[in-house]
Write a structure and sequence with these properties.
Elements (H helix, E strand, L loop, with lengths): L9 E3 L29 E11 L4 E11 H10 L2 H14 L2 H10 L5 H5 L14 E9 L2 E3 L5 E4 H10 L2 H9 L9 H9 L6
Antiparallel strand pairs: 1-5, 2-3, 2-4, 4-5, 4-6
This protein binds zinc ion (ZN).
Length: 197
């Protein structure tokens, strides 16, 4: 799956998808180390946030970037049962294709709009305690192709609940590079892991 893909709508990767504390996008796959900027290969960014709504403080819990080969490899190591359940859940609870078509029809190529409501539960990013965001990128560009999207903590919990223990172990093993968390967020870290959807 190493060839580039062609999506007509893209923008330079916005800072919310940069590595935390950096002023530049990710440049290597976090799993295999492959270079991402020059290769033209598509890749996926996943970031998890916790936030204190009263203090309006937001904190990254973890962040990942995976090349498509690694996405595929991780998917293949998950149990078939887990994969089928997640696919069914997403089919029943989201409408990413229709949303994509609507946003494009109105030429709304603004990441804030695409991330504003959970694609499963429709909760606003300003009212959830936890959320995970996903982007499909290629070189220095973010591609508008169903992604980017946001999934709130409640939906992440439901999806994680569909995974077998073995699949959860595999995903937890990916958690090699966590952000240093202040104590108020450290509880979250114990239950959070990439779900790669
Ligand atoms: Zn990789």
């Amino acid at each position: 799956m190493s060839e580039s893909i062609h999506i007509n709508n893209y923008i330079p990767i916005p800072p919310i998808f940069y590595p935390e504390g950096s002023d530049k996008p990710f440049c290597n796959c976090k799993v295999c180390g492959k270079e991402l900027m020059e290769s033209g290969e598509p890749y996926l960014i996943e970031k998890a946030y916790g936030q204190d709504l009263e203090k309006e403080k937001r904190q990254v819990i973890f962040e990942f970037v995976y090349c498509f080969d690694c996405v595929q490899e991780v998917h293949e190591t998950l149990s078939v049962e887990s994969r089928v359940k997640i696919a069914e859940y997403m089919k029943q609870n989201t409408n990413l294709e229709q949303r994509d078509a609507e946003l494009k029809k109105h030429e709304l190529f603004d990441v804030d709009i695409w991330l504003h409501n959970c694609v499963v539960k429709n909760q606003s990013i300003d009212e959830v305690k936890e959320f995970q965001i996903y982007a499909l990128c290629q070189g220095g560009d973010l591609l508008f192709h169903q992604a980017p999207y946001m999934i709130c903590g409640d939906a992440v919990d439901e999806i994680a609940g569909l995974l077998s223990n073995k699949s959860l172990d595999i995903l937890n093993d990916l958690m090699t590079d966590l952000i240093d968390l202040p104590p108020e967020f450290s509880e979250l870290f114990k239950t959070r892991h990439p779900i790669l959807i």
